[in-house]
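Q: Make up one entry.
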Amino acid sequence: MDSLKKKEKIIHTITTTSSNESINDINTEQSCINPSCFFCTMKEPNSMIRRAGLQRCFKEMPSRDSQALVMVLSGLWNIAMTQPDDPEFPSLGVFRCMASLIQKGIDNKSWLLKDQNIYIPYYAAHIIGSYTMNKAKFAEKAVQSGVIPPLIDLLRGKISWVEQRVAVRALGHLASYEKTFDAVAMYEEDVVKSAMQLASNCLEVVYTKFVGVPDAKERLGYHRDLLTRGVGGLDTENRKAEEWACQLQRWSLYLLNCFACKERSLNLICRQEFLKDLCEMWGGLVNHESPAGVGLIRILCYSKHGRKSIAESKEVVIRLCHISRSSDDWQYIGIDCLLLLLKDQDTRFKVLEISASFLVDLVELRSLGDRSNVGEEIARVLLLDYKQIMLKLKSNEVQRVMQEIWDLKVERRKREKTMPQEMVEERRVLVGLIKQQGNHVFCLGDIEEALAKYTEALDLCPLRLRKERVVLYSDRAQCRLLLGDPDAAISDLTRALCLSTPANSHSKSLWRRSQAFDIKSLAKESLMDCVMFLNSCVKAETAKGVKIPYHAARMISKQMEASWIFANLESKASRNQSSKAQESENYGKQKFDEMMRIMIERKGLISRLSTIREEPFMGNEEVKRKMERARNTRPSWNLQVATADRFEFSKLAPASSTSWTQGQDQSEPHSKLYHHPRATSRPARQYRLTKMSWWWAGAIGAAKQRTENGGAFRGHQSVALVIGVTGIVGNSLAEILPLSDTPGGPWKIYGVARRPRPNWNLDHPVEYIQCDISNMADTQAKLSKLTDVTHIFYVTWALRFTEAENIEANNLMFRNVLQAVIPNAPNLKHVCLQTGLKHYVGPFELVGKIKPHDTPYTEDLPRLSAPNFYYDLEDILAGEVAKKEGVTWSVHRPHTILGFSPYSLMNIMGTLCVYAAICKREGMPLLFPGTESVWNAYSIASDADLIAEQEIWAAVDPNARNEAFNIHNGDVFKWKHLWKILAEQFGIEKYGLPESGKKVSLTELMKDKGTVWEKIVKDNQLLPNKLEEVGVWWFADFVLGAESIISCMNKSKEHGFLGFRNSKNSLISWVDKLKAHKIVP
């Protein structure tokens, strides 16, 4: 009924509101005698009669010739935009009706130009696109109704660029579903060529046909009406036309991505001329969220053919280098592309010759947005087969750069590893003195001497003194700028920005690099740095009174003009049209004002994969309210939920179930397909797809957060209590919750663990509480005073010999925590409980003795008739939460967890890594400690970061309240494949199943390896630990010896969580982290 009321309200508004638009001139209030009248039918209270009437309307509409037809289409468009998931109209024949109307407009020009019919093909295509953007079943029905041929006719330009825009949007939706892709692919060559032509030429078409036409009377009237809905003058039309031109280009790229993701038509897409065009497709100033051309380039980098074609274009590679060394939102995409090209032996040397001198500046980049160890990954890829590479390289400059990377990341790091702290402090003092000398001679005007002093200080400064090195690099770059060497200045400033925390946040370096980019005529890069510089100067609380530095304002104005999407076209046209000068000046000022507004509002330009959506026109006040709601309520990292039927492309991806846009009629594509954000805060190896929700900011994928310095802290919105903060998932929660764009944030975090705080946990911004939660008195004393807690994350458990003892111990611990916190935390909102898949198979002691459920396991399966402390914990949770009104809960059931924590009871990663390290030390083969059936079976695993992301999502998303969810990576793997990767990570050549066929038991094999491990720890300067502390041998034997089980993630997806991980990449990244924290060599 609510849906019907909304429709009636929309129809009433359409039929009674008058405006300046010519399409509203029709008198719809006169008495109606048409039995097939759409508006009258919509008012019919009897649903069966109304549905029959609507079905008749849709059937007869294409054959009727009525002036009110455009009103009907306008009403349908509004309904489709506001209720795209409502099945009523799609089930009654709306798609066949719209297809017929489009075809009629194409075939019958006289009809098209009669009355207001010129609007009809636009609205019809828009309605198709709106109803197909979320639901696969609607897309299938649309294809069956024959919408593709008329949409392709529009795509070819049979009417105008305005209709091309909505046609490419609709085709993009249809091509993004697995079940409807083939229907679009039947016209593959035609579609791909048309989309390529549109992407390359649409800006010129829009400019010459509309923006570049100074006299409003010479512009097509219906274009003006559709762009502005009759509100606003010439400047408003120009701004909307610019926005639509950008959308037309990005949506064309989006359609191409549908084919590129499946490695289709790469021979067309990878043409050199088009690849060069892609480099310039950045989306313009109105594009805040789509990676545009570089997004498609990265998808091409995932295919052999694509990498080969890109490597052959020096211009494209250089453009990727510039992006990777800028503060552009898509910096990480440029880095990803270059790494993919460098990892391919067929393209490695060609790309290395160009990119090495750029990437050398990034090797000390710790984190980029949610990604960590980015520089380490870059260095690792560059130094692959270092000695062989140095013999093959012909360029002396590239050899010098490679030698510099080797010296910095290997030799110097090795030397400084043993440097005592006293010497570090001595060096700090000495470096400070030399820097002062440099400052002094700089003030005296001896720039070359100052340059020498700063270089001397850098050579002496230990690598760990990052803050000091930031300043030294930045000051040396200023000298290079004054000496007329912008390339060297950019190099130094990039290094300074990589060393800053967070990355790209040192304001002086941003301004200086903006100047250097300006000298090099790199307008976009200069603009982005200047924007970031202003972000560091602006305080959100005083946005109305912001004083923009004059020099920065001039730079912004200059680079905005230079990088405007129509700049080149306007320059050509203005040579013969001097009368346009004033209009250009006014429009330029509005562009400048818009950029100022964006910076002052400090918008998080978040990467997300979403649908192509367009909202109906709304008044200015409504726009402001909607934008404010979006800013205040969006769960940041990624937005927008996809159906389970949505195409899941391999390798593709940074809590709301609906998309949000930022203004009237936004129609943003949100980069649904061409975004590969990282799937975790580890080295950049994991990617994900679909319409993104926040968890992909890491998950990917998902998201990239602009660094915003200078904003005053406004207090914590949420307070988390993480019970088990040193555990495998607790550690991930401690890393993810403090991130600036984590939903529900800013977060304050209390972390509880039984043992003293370990060194590897010290860098997390957590208030650590050492507490034995099995002791009621200790728990009450330490946790009851945490009155500000809003969310509890219970991610710990105790292991006992029998399940009866497990029940007793774990019930006590969980009840102690809840009874200490719930009565004393007035603002408590949610309790998250983590259990596991033993919920479906029973406790360890009964595995093989009771019959488990059939796989795949779903959350609605009944409990087994066996004791299980997981069941007791869920009952305790329900009982305790029920005592406090408004508190919700969630339960999370992971499989084998891949993560980092030396303190975890079930740390399979740490155990296998220690086993591999011992095998490497003793020259033993890395034998698989499991059965042959497990070796060859499909298995699943759960990435610790992904579990944490789901738990945070469930804590803040109302769609997830009071539910239990399975959680695993979303893919399947075979241990025989992961075992090879594990062996490679430790340089072990021999690995696999035992030749004798006898099962290897790690419990037996590792019995007497304690002394071996002590030597490994000592020789590699690892964190002091005993073998029994880091190796849980019984657990590895159990996991790798038990029958493979699979759980189902459908419920999680249906409720809005679409995060996933590539299990292979997950394993590699956790091995890297264990090595980085000196747990294993």
In short: The first strand starts at residue 367 and ends at 368. The chain has 50 helices and 15 strands.
